[in-house]
Write a structure and sequence with these properties.
The chain has helices at residues 27-31, 99-105, 129-142, 148-170, 173-176, 180-195, 202-209, 213-224, 228-246, 251-257, 263-274, 278-288; strands at residues 22-26, 37-41, 46-54, 56-61, 64-69, 72-76, 82-86, 91-98, 120-123. By secondary structure, it is of the alpha+beta class. The chain has two domains: 22-171, Regulatory protein AraC (Jelly Rolls); 176-292, Homeodomain-like (Arc Repressor Mutant, subunit A). It has a five-stranded antiparallel sheet. A hairpin with a 2-residue loop joins β4 and β5 (64-69). The longest helix is centred in the middle third of the chain and has 23 residues, at 148-170.
Length: 302
């Protein structure tokens, strides 16, 4: 059985950490080795920023297919599934950093961190301040100059703030707020992301945040339109859908990994929320994926 591949850098086992907290390379450097196809995978602890100067292709961001062209800027947080296929003339760069390095660079603006929790695909026009910052970063990346590390850190911080501004402008007003309820909501999201597989009670999260379950539900409804329990179920469902589409794990193994006591209970939960049984969802969902994203069939044993 093959789960969704998890790498540090694509093709590099996740048990082999980055030698530094920051890694950068051209898109061609790694993609050319794999026929310009980067099959669906995820990173456990790394945020990636991919920027295309010229050329293009297609991105798979979770289940969403996105055409890529010059000016495409993809931000991929840890644990989210993504894949790419590029045209051989693609010119661009990929920046990979640990989540701890992201927090270090944005230490002065901690309220920007939640804006990096979801995949993004932005198109940055020429002349935009973010495009200029990306060009400066690439120039420093390709040069060997004095104080290069300090310069790269400063420019990367500028790039991250530019991305955060785009995300902030597109976010709902409730999510942009820096009020106490907004901070409680962000804390709940962080806690949920760390232990959604255990499906803990709402009271556990409320206690960890320092509010009552009723208050937590109110906070969640104001920020997302969903109750806390609905958010827990949505997070579990999202991971189940990823495993069904991008791995060949059996239904019972997916169920157990997500805290369900048996496959039948999981199947009822899934069908109630999706309207399809897990096997039906897997078949119909894979039929909509691009060819490069589908796991090849395994050779029979023998």
């Amino acid at each position: 059985m093959r789960p969704v591949p998890t790498y540090s850098l694509y093709g590099v086992n996740s048990s082999e950490p980055l030698s530094d907290q920051l890694h950068f390379e051209s898109i061609a450097a790694r993609s050319r080795l794999h026929g310009w196809e980067i099959k669906p995978h995820r990173h456990e602890r790394f945020l990636q920023i991919l920027y295309i100067h010229a050329g293009g292709g297609e991105a798979l961001l979770e289940e969403r297919r996105e055409p890529l062209r010059g000016g495409s800027l993809v931000t991929m947080p840890p644990r989210h599934i993504h894949g790419f296929v590029f045209t051989p003339d693609t010119d661009g760069m990929v920046v990979t950093m640990t989540d701890s390095h992201l927090r270090t660079l944005l230490a002065g603006v901690p309220d920007a961190l939640p804006l990096f929790e979801h995949p993004r695909h932005d198109r940055v026009r020429r002349g935009h301040a973010l495009a200029d910052a990306l060009a400066l970063f690439r120039g420093e990346m390709e040069a060997v100059s004095a104080w290069r590390g300090a310069s790269l850190s400063a420019l990367l911080t500028l790039v991250l703030i530019g991305i955060a501004r785009l995300a902030n402008a597109a976010a709902p007003a409730a999510a942009r707020s820096s009020s106490r309820p907004a901070r409680h909501f962000q804390h709940f999201q962080q806690l949920l992301e760390s232990d959604y597989r255990e499906q803990k009670e709402i009271g556990h999260y409320a206690g960890a945040i320092g509010i009552t379950p009723t208050q937590l539900n109110r906070v969640c409804r104001q920020a997302s339109g969903q109750s806390a329990l609905q958010m827990i179920h949505a997070r579990v469902l999202a991971e189940a859908q990823r495993d069904l589409l991008f791995s060949d794990l059996e239904i019972k193994h997916i169920a157990l990994s997500l805290g369900f006591s048996d496959a039948a209970y999981f199947s009822r939960f899934f069908a109630r929320l999706v309207g399809q049984a897990p096997t039906e969802f897997r078949q119909s969902g894979r039929a909509r994926l691009p060819t490069f994203a589908v796991q090849p069939a395994r050779e029979p044993a023998g």
